[in-house]
Amino acid sequence: MPSPTMRRKTLGAELRRLRNAEALSADQIADLLGCSQAKVRHMENGRTAPSKAELKVLMDHYGLPDERRSILEETREEARKRGWWSTYRLPSWFQDYVGMESDAVRVRTFELEMIPGLLQTEAYARAINVIGSHMTEPEEVERQVSARLRRQVRLDEGDSLALHAVISEAALHRCTADPALAQEQMRRLAELAAKPNISIQVLPFSSGLHESVSGSFTLLDFPPGTWPSSAYQEYAVGGHLVDDKDAVAALSTVFQRLCERAMSEEASTKLISRHADI
């Protein structure tokens, strides 16, 4: 069943489609609902779900038939439920990503400086959160680590999430600079690389300048006919989902080029294994 995040996005997309079909502006809908234009935008991009009363006003305005109303009302109810991640007190900007990730069938990720979250050991995840004290309060570290480990469960479930990670060699060296973390993390990477649903490639220093020297990113792909591919980019004090189809397509092209520059999966695993023997 789609997550509450996906339900919100589906409902928002339908409300935007209905508004556009009537050639109405967001300002006009805001006047109709007695709210701000920003709230209308948040509803339409799936950040929030409308209240029951707001949805009724919109459905009355668009003159929707009973059958269509029932579908939208059910979608709204599902959209307002809490996902498993809600108990972990994740930042709001990251909750949306985790919700989308839980619906994805494939994740493609490029990391410049870190081991990707879905591949991190518990010790590495804890170290990252401790260092990132400007983002994670000390008392929240263990909760954040638990959430990261909970996300990894999908890599082993029956409908295993497909993961293709391209990792800069810099991320390996930063990890091996701390021997207490390195052996376990590198061995974990080598073990995961052997799984049929996981592909790991290392982008070596020898590749020189590349298409994403400016930063890391993640692409999320969903079941056919459900939701278009989305992207996610994170920075020092936050992150955001990217839904613009042109931007997502451009990042998909960048990812493919990074794959072509990177070492083969076999060569990458050998390099990772050598790092594990430090």
TrEMBL record:
SUPFAM superfamilies named in the record: lambda repressor-like DNA-binding domains
Residue ranges of domain HTH cro/C1-type in the record: 15-68
Residues forming coiled coils: none
Signal peptide location: none
Gene Ontology molecular function: any one: DNA binding
InterPro entries: Cro/C1-type_HTH, DUF5753, Lambda_DNA-bd_dom_sf
Protein name according to UniProt: Helix-turn-helix domain-containing protein
